[in-house]
Amino acid sequence: MVTPTRVLIVDDSAVVRGLLVRALQTCPDVEISGTAMHGEAALNQLQRQPADIVVLDIEMPVMDGLTALPRILRAFPQTRVIVASSSTYEGAETTVKALALGAAGCIAKPSKASVTDSIQHVATELLPLVQALRLPKAASPEQKPREPAACVSAGRGRSRPDVVVIGTSTGGPNALSKLLAAIPAEFDLPILIVQHMPPLFTPLLARHLAQDSRRPCQEAIDGGPIERGHIYLAPGDYHLTVNKRGNRMVTELNQNSPEHFCRPSVNPLFRSAAEWYGPRLLAVMLTGMGEDGLEGTQEVVSRKGYVIAQDEATSVVWGMPGALVRHGLANEVLPLERIAGAICQLSLAR
Q1: Which positions are annotated as active-site residues?
Q2: Of 66, 69, 71, 85, which has the most beta carbons under 10 Å away?
Q3: Which residues are named in the active-site annotation (predicted)?
Q4: Could you give all domains of the chain from N- to C-terminal order, each with its CATH number?
Q5: What confidence tens digit (pLDDT) does each residue in 159-174 have?
Q6: Contacts (Cβ under 8 Å, ≥6 apart) of 11
Q7: CA separation for the pair 212, 143 (Å, rounded)
Q8: pLDDT tens for residues 250-259?
Q9: 3-class DSSP assignment, residue 344
Q10: Of all helices (H) and strands (E), which one includes residue 6?
């Protein structure tokens, strides 16, 4: 018998709580463990009855979501938090903050549409996320790297990379914040990132990552030069690729069809970077739902690039990095806290 996934719903609106409950009731093996009107009530509820997932509003009286979120994660580290946000600029800004603080994902709050439409809209966004987050983690996952090597020897016999490309999705903003903050200021390779995120959110994420990494971070532009020491983030709704124009490498954007239902997708970035950089490419796959990036990583491997995948234990969802491991594409499978060190060590290779 499958153990139900317990979900706590936290929102000051009784209407929204009701819509979320009805949407989740359509999902098999999900149990509503309770509801709460604000963050303080949620913490009290979790003390009495733990939940696997918390759906958390941001703007609430008594204790708002941004205050409650880190307290929930500290007190209940196994609990995953999904934030519900409005579609306004202010809502996007607070949502990006919540994701960087450790929220596993976000959904748009129900609109003023009909009840049926609102339930359908919430279910379409929320249920896949709940299903992905409730997948059990293996106690001792078998994670075999393509070229077994300890981190201490990762840079030996390798070409020094000229660029780092990173792909991520669910849980990515927090993982990116931690990873980039751990890379020392003297590291000067350009870093290009695809994070699955809508257009309203990506400029805010770029600004947040610039603060955490202490280096320039911006949304990539079409035809913009790739400069050393800079970070480039794929804008929402655009695929990011790299190309050579004249004697310099540039970023390019397009709105070709989504891949794996994603635009931006990791695949176009990894494929184009593999084409131009070959063995001097370092590709990193962080936490994320689905298998976006698998085909792109196959191209990286075929052109002798180096691949690091985040391990299952530190991933919010081990979909994207797990796909690489299952297909034998990862040179190293590392916990998040060791990836920055591996990147730096590879950058010192000769």
Answers
A1: 169, 196, 292
A2: 85
A3: 169, 196, 292
A4: 5-133 (3.40.50.2300), 151-347 (3.40.50.180)
A5: 899 999 999 999 999 9
A6: 17, 20, 35, 37, 55, 57, 60, 84
A7: 30
A8: 999 999 999 9
A9: helix
A10: strand 5-10
